[in-house]
TrEMBL record:
The keyword Ligase does not apply. Belongs to the alpha-ketoglutarate dehydrogenase family. One of its GO terms (cellular component) is oxoglutarate dehydrogenase complex. It comes from Pseudoalteromonas piratica. One of its GO terms (molecular function) is thiamine pyrophosphate binding. Its EC number is 1.2.4.2. Its cofactor is thiamine diphosphate. Residues 594-787 form the Transketolase-like pyrimidine-binding domain. It is an enzyme of class 1 (oxidoreductase). Keywords: Oxidoreductase, Thiamine pyrophosphate. Transmembrane segments: none annotated. It holds the Pfam family 2-oxogl_dehyd_N. This is 2-oxoglutarate dehydrogenase E1 component.
Amino acid sequence: MHEGVMKAWLESSHFNGGNVAYVEELYEAYLDDASSVSDEWREVFDALPKVEGVDVDVKHSDIRAQFAELAKNKHKEVVVAAGGASDAKQVRVLQLINAYRFRGHQNANLDPLGLWQREKVRDLTLEHHDLTDSDLDKEFNVGSFASGSDTMKLKDLYAALKKTYCGSIGAEYMHITSTEEKRWLQQRLESNFAQPQFSNETKLRILKGLTAADGLEKYLGAKFPGAKRFSLEGGDALVPMLKELIHRAGESGQEEAVIGMAHRGRLNVLVNVLGKNPQVLFDEFAGKYGELAGSGDVKYHMGYSSDFATTGGNVHMALAFNPSHLEIVNPVVMGSVRARLDRLGCTNGSKALPITIHGDSAIAGQGVVQETFNLSQTRAFSVGGSIRIVVNNQVGFTTSKREDVRSTEYCTDIAKMVQAPIFHVNSDDPEAVAFVTQLALDFRNKFKRDVVIDLVCYRRHGHNEADEPNATQPLMYQKIKKHPVPRQIYADTLVSQGVLSADEAKALADNYRNGLDNGVCVVDEIQPDTKHSSDWSKFVGHDWDVAYDPALPLDKLKALGESVANYPENHKAQSRVKKIYDDRKAMAAGEKPLDWGMAETLAYASLVDEGTDIRITGQDSGRGTFFHRHAVVHNQADASTYLPLQNIRPEQGAFEVYDSVLSEEAVLAFEYGYATAEPTSLVCWEAQFGDFANGAQVVFDQFLSSGEQKWGRLCGLTILLPHGYEGQGPEHSSARLERFLQLCADHNMQVCVPSTPAQVYAMIRRQSVRPLRRPLIVMTPKSLLRHPLAVSSLEELSTGIFHNMIDEIDDIDARKVERVVFCSGKVYYELLQQRREQELNNVAIVRVEQLYPFPHAEMETIMQRYQHVKDFVWCQEEPQNQGAWYCSQHHFWEAIPQGANLSYAGRKASASPACGYMSTHTKEQTALIADALTIKK
């Protein structure tokens, strides 16, 4: 409000000193929730003087002083409330409303077992707000309470608040800073007192879902007693919840939904939501798996996909495969959804929906949950919000004491970091579950933010069916044993309402069991023909020797080089960056040999020119950790950016490079999910230093290295890991090459150590052009990025051939060679320089550029020149118990001539990846180079 307008309004009001306390209380209510006061008062408070750098609060002493000064000059009574209330009790009523919005969830009826011992919240009592029974029949202005009326009797308001905030739903949303979001939620919750009104048709649909959930578990328990199935019993409402969610998603225009969950209830979701044929599940229980292409996996890790019919069209559902690492599937799901959104050209998340299902102990206990929440609103990883469901059975394996599993009141408090609304709901009230499900999705679709549903339930059996839960939770399981199943509770309710008869309710259960007996799909909405969101057909059934054409004409390369070396004249680049781009112009013109950065950039340029989409993420990926890439040119004048790779030609493939959040585990898992959903894109993740990949080891172990063997999931993700010993100490030397080689088997992935710009160019192109999709692990260099010997010509690039091995390049007579040194990576150039300086013309150096799959054919060809040699050595920078020595030496033994000797030259075994002192590093490096080049007589 303008100062003059405000002054006029104040002068026309009725102030005196006796009303200062009332005004302060009104201001307190305004600070809690601006929408709780009238528009007139809100204008006054909005216009109060602001302290610089402070958006909301003003010192109360300043407020009191301002109103006291106004009151000195006025002598008229103020009308402080509507509806006949003329004292401060009106403010108390507004504070009562806010108390229920803030703390009503703490007295909500959430636990089906009634075991939660929760203290009475005094803020929710009339007495706390100085309201008495004599006030119950008085009319008060209810502010923004969405009752449909401006005023209500206190007794009616009090009852409405209890119904809305202390029933089967406990809503937490007042931590959200957006007034628009809070008002929207208040309108939805308060307009019908959080008491959903469903048609009989919807009620019957809910009952069918509960009947299916209960029926499958009982069937499995009877047919396969004692077998692990991680039963959903107690959390049965998850099935109708998910089906309601998919129906709502389809009605709102979503075309795809990706679900991620751990074990609990997974088999039930597979059969009763995604429509997996129950006979297939029964065969799996019986050990009948048919022909297996790989190792396979246990039943409760498996994924599935299907089409689900809704009134808004079919929704393609995919349940992500998940190992036992519980929450790690969350970022995988988000990555898969982002890929689908990109493919559909959707930037706001309206076409695809991520749904993640958590355990109560896991969501609070595992750090990847926080990492994934942190991704949710970032440029590189946003998906328009997700629906996160917690199957809260109040016990983690055997731990049920809250103080043992978390440090917060609720397991869902972690979600407050991204201001997600949280709806706690009693799972024995399936209509309340359906209501919050619809509410959650509608909020997600409108505000593009994460939403959490805390499905408070119980676990009827132990962690698995072989456990004895009474041993550790005796009181809980005594209560569970007597507690009726959710289906029975709801069926009885509907019978009492006259929605159906008891016989009809029983018939639903009988019909479901008949469907199981007949081995047919038991989900009415599942469509027979599943559409696939992406086409993997041309990538299936190939191995490493599949034919492809990697070549690119020299004139095309030159033209691409000119494109990537240019940015607008009015775009002021930083001086060092300008020098890099000037050098690239010279490289494109053939005036300078190409360095690593230019060759890598040309690889990307050639692919986007051919229509391939490229996505690169990492903590310094735009610039490159070692100042070599500079795919993003920052204008020094106005901080705007320009990406030459986005400006190759019209209709080119997309090029996206993002500096990611400071996370390895969640970001790598996200990119894995993206790559498994999009085979035609080149997807890359780059570690800032190679050893940072340690923080994402679970992704390598349980997804990248074994996903194809366990689940038949192809993935062409490229991993760039800076690696090399330059004296930077234990944490910034080694990318732990040995760990990746230990994971290699069954031709599951590639591990490459390219040593020239031409090699990195050809390797990147090969990963995309070759119709094969398996992970590529690359040990990328640091010092080699600007090494004078690590250069290539445009002609070398134009062939596009990646050499798995490179023979001796100097003019050495092979017949005079007495020792052959095998090596990979940076150490090659140190060996080469030392060999040249000492003129050791009887030592040949052979580079192994691809350590896995080991290039036996190329090795055999090269070794034909050295059949007379008896002395072979493997040289590496890493300690002997690390690097490639232990994992690869059998390949060398197989390749060298019979009777020849193979020895090791490198650092001795060490518990640490590298030493911490430059002097020690230099001494060790000098010694290992000398050892490798010295022929033992």
